[in-house]
Design brief:
Elements (H helix, E strand, L loop, with lengths): L1 H21 L5 E6 L4 E7 L4 E7 L3 H6 L6 H17 L6 E3 L8 H11 L5
Parallel strand pairs: 1-4
Antiparallel strand pairs: 1-2, 2-3
Helix pairs in contact: 3-4
Length: about 120
């Protein structure tokens, strides 16, 4: 079990290193996926602050979604995050998938954010 977590942390470190190197000052859209929910936030690493955040735990999302652990929920979280980020003046981000593979819920969140207006 510890080996799985260790491999995930190493993969996450590699991804974050490449993302920060390629960011060019753009904020980073980072994702956390649990078994029941998905969370996303746009972080400005230069200022060290969170610009916008969204998750399936919010009251607005709970009323609309059947569960927070599917691709439909992830797409809605991505769209909500994109709306909040563009309201704060952020239109371009760099996507930080963490240690997760880019498929399933992670890809659905990215596609939802792109459709709602974020560029990455």
């Amino acid at each position: 079990m510890a080996k799985t977590a260790e491999r995930f942390n190493r993969r996450q470190g590699r991804v974050r290193f490449r993302v920060r190197k390629a960011s060019g000052g753009r904020p980073r859209l980072t994702v956390f996926r649990s078994g029941k929910h998905i969370y996303a936030q746009v972080i400005d690493d230069v200022k060290g602050e969170t610009v916008a955040a969204a998750s399936t735990l919010e009251k607005d999302m709970r009323g609309v979604l059947k569960t927070g652990a599917n691709k439909d929920a992830a797409a809605k979280v991505g769209a909500l995050l994109a709306q909040r980020a563009t309201a704060k003046g952020v239109s371009e981000v760099i996507f930080d998938r963490g240690g997760y593979m880019f498929h399933g819920r992670i890809k659905a969140l990215a596609d939802g954010a792109r459709e709602a207006g974020l560029k990455f």
